[in-house]
Amino acid sequence: MKASLALLLLCGAVLAPVFPAWACATCACGDPTLTSMGTEQPFSGRLRLSTTLRAWGHTVGQERVDALRLREARMDVAVAYAPLPWLFLSATLPLQAREVRSVSLARERGWGVGDVEVSAKAFLYQDREFSADHLFSVLAGVKLPTAPRLRAADGTLLDLDTQLGSGSVDPLAGVAYQHFRGDWSFLVSATGFLPLRGMLGFRAGPSLRTTLAAQYQPAPRWAVRLGLDSRVEAAADIDGEKEENGGGVISYASPDVLFSPSTDIVVAAGVRVPFFNRLHGRVAPTPIAMMSVAYDL
User: Which residues have CB under 8 Å from 65's CB, separation 6+?
Assistant: First the structure.
């Protein structure tokens, strides 16, 4: 009788359905650091979704003479997947609403889907597979001309400043280093963009964007982050004729607060404040308000 019962239990254990074991992202990568989209530690099978809201603007030209004011609200919907422990594939779809107002008070508005960006990040070095302290990665990608060409009621194209995309294919490449040390983490990154010519003969200038950031996380559910974001770019041109306003160097101070209301969800809110503006001509940028939510499946 006991032998028969043992045999039945053994058969039941073998034939019982097996369900996959799920673990939180922190458990899988061994690091409890709260991270915004694009700064996470890799592990095979990691899937992350995010949405980021931004509100920003700038004024180009001289007030009461030829000033052009642009304001935009933008939501980036992004997905990142790691098919291998050292590789992240990502795609970002922007949804934009833009208004451009000239000194004459004439206005143009555009809204819809912007240019999709796809990229691959390869982690070339990490000091250990689980709970790495040092990560070095390279990035390659491209921005694609997926935004529709916006037209007025009479069928004419809206101004370039109102368009949600450039109509060009823009390759990009970058490098990044991350260091994790107890409650602290650090990021240094640089990404270069080489835009090609797009609609109406427009071509944005090549640019280099850099980030230096430090994050302090005194508790499992929240952290504070302070970054320095800079952009160096050449002036844009239309059919070879350079624009007078734009090109040069601009830097932003970027404080953020990160909060995790539950496992695998990270909410971040912050602002990008321009404090160093050496753009050519007359370009007055506004601060950039930002809020994001990232979720690991």
Answer: 103
Nearest CA-CA partner of 261 in 218, 290, 295: 295
As a whole number, mean pLDDT of residues 250-273 equals: 96
DSSP per-residue letters across 216-244: EEEETTEEEEEEEEEEEEPPPEETTEEPS
Alpha-carbon dihedral angle through residues 54, 163, 151, 97, given to the nearest 10 degrees: 0
Cβ atoms of residues 208 and 231 within 8 Å: yes
For 117-154, letters b (16+ CB in 10 Å) and e give bebebebeebeeeeebeebebebebbbebebeebeeee
Among 97, 60, 36, smallest CA distance to 269 is for: 36
* Cα atoms found within 13 Å of the Cα of residue 251, Cβ hemisphere only: 8
Domain boundaries defined on the chain: 28-296
Q: Helix, strand, or coil here: 6? A: helix
By CB atoms closer than 10 A (0-12, 13-18, 19+), residue 264 is middle
- The predicted-structure confidence for 149-207, as pLDDT tens digits, reads as follows 999 888 899 998 999 999 999 999 999 999 999 899 999 999 999 999 999 899 999 99
Instruction: Report the C-alpha gap between 269 and 289 in whole angstroms.
Output: 8
Q: Report the alpha-carbon distance of residue 291 to residue 268 in Å, rounded.
A: 6
Report how far apart, in Å, the C-alpha atoms of 208 and of each of 95, 283, 284 are. Answer: 24, 18, 20
Closest of 227, 142, 239, 139 to residue 188, by C-alpha:
227
For the chain, the C-alpha Rg in angstroms (whole number) is 24
Global pTM reads 0.86
CATH superfamily of 28-296: Autotransporter beta-domain (2.40.128.130)
For residue 232, what are the β-bridge partners?
Answer: 208, 249
